[in-house]
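in:
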């Protein structure tokens, strides 16, 4: 079952699937949710379904980006829905509209009898810690946070700097202007780890290839740069991107969830006006998830959150709970660089070979790709 869940494939129709489940999604702090009908395991999967899976309830609480953020909320939600499909568990979900919804939504999951509740994002850490402490018999898993030390809380974290390093190297090797850029939603570890890795990858290319590519928007030494202040305002993403391009950048890495859609809007307009700007997406394979603008996505720095969520649920259903953090790396394929899709023919074979070697070197430890925010 674990192997089956680890082979989750993202679907371009996931937004429709989420919309189809909208009747089950809570907004704000409503009453305890109704359980969705349990799925049925079929084919070869059915033989490995643990006894009692039909009586197990797996749940999820989003941050304010919602389950259609084309990013980490959506990917984590896919893991839950896949577990429902493959294991036959019941599921519940609560979609937060603001930070004030976190505790009420978590309480609604506990009242609803959830065996395991996945909370999505660093911003839910305080609420998760509080509710978990008050409900020691319930299990919780939190994506993108490792600050909670509790027997009933399992962190799901990623050394995203490793994959972002590859993206930075790619950007430095393919820029036509000698300038690339990145910005974040908020100055928090789960955002800056991407920016650190990206900047390190550019620096590695400069060092090994003798180039002088400049990174706009992030100073790794000062750990400060350009941030929109939230994960919702796409207009800020559009403005940042326009400013970066006006400064000469031709590859942009937005680390801001749905705000990155503003980057794609800006690039569409800029390229229509004669520019040639590309985007590197984050969290999921943006080519498969964004509603518009996928033709501008060079690649994506992926955190395979759906696979991790599915694996944690599968282990819990089987009675193998533990609070040891799941850490996604290049080695275990918890993080990865997405395919080049429309740019497959434009990325030189030499660059592809260098990226493969660089990946192997990072796994072997001969090249260091790390951030102050990397899991310790």
């Amino acid at each position: 079952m674990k192997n089956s869940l680890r082979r989750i494939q993202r679907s371009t129709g996931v937004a429709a699937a989420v919309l189809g489940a909208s009747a089950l999604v809570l907004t704000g702090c409503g009453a305890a949710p109704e359980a969705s009908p349990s799925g049925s395991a079929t084919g070869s999967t059915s033989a490995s379904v643990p006894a009692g899976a039909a009586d197990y309830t797996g749940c999820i609480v989003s941050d304010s980006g919602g389950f259609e953020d084309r990013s980490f909320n959506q990917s984590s939600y896919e893991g839950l829905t896949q577990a429902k499909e493959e294991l036959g568990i019941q599921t519940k979900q609560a979609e937060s509209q603001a930070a004030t919804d976190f505790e009420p939504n978590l309480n609604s999951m506990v009242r609803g009898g959830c065996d395991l509740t996945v909370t999505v994002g660093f911003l839910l850490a305080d609420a998760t810690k509080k509710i978990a402490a008050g409900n020691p018999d319930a299990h919780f898993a939190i994506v993108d946070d490792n600050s909670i030390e509790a027997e009933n809380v399992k962190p799901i974290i990623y050394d995203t700097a490793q994959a972002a390093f590859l993206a930075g190297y790619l950007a430095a090797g393919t820029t036509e202007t000698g300038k690339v850029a990145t910005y974040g939603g908020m100055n928090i570890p789960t955002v800056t780890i991407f920016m650190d890795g990206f900047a390190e990858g550019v620096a590695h290319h400069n060092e090994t290839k003798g180039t002088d590519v400049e990174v706009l928007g992030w100073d790794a030494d000062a750990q400060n740069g350009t941030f929109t202040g939230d994960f919702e305002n796409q207009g800020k993403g559009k403005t940042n991107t326009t400013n970066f391009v006006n400064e000469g950048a031709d590859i942009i890495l937005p680390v801001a969830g749905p705000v990155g859609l503003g980057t794609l809007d800006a690039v569409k307009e800029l390229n229509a006006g004669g520019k040639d700007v590309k985007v590197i997406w984050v969290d999921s394979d943006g080519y498969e998830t964004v509603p518009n603008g996928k033709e501008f996505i060079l690649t994506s720095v992926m955190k395979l959150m759906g696979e991790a969520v599915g694996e944690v649920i599968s282990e819990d259903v089987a009675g193998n709970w533990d609070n040891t953090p799941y850490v996604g790396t290049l080695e275990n394929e918890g993080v990865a660089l997405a395919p080049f899709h429309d740019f497959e023919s434009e990325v030189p074979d030499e660059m592809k070979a260098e990226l493969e070697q660089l990946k192997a070197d990072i796994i072997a430890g001969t090249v260091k790709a790390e951030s102050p925010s990397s899991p310790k």
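note: Residues 189-209 form the longest helix (21 residues).
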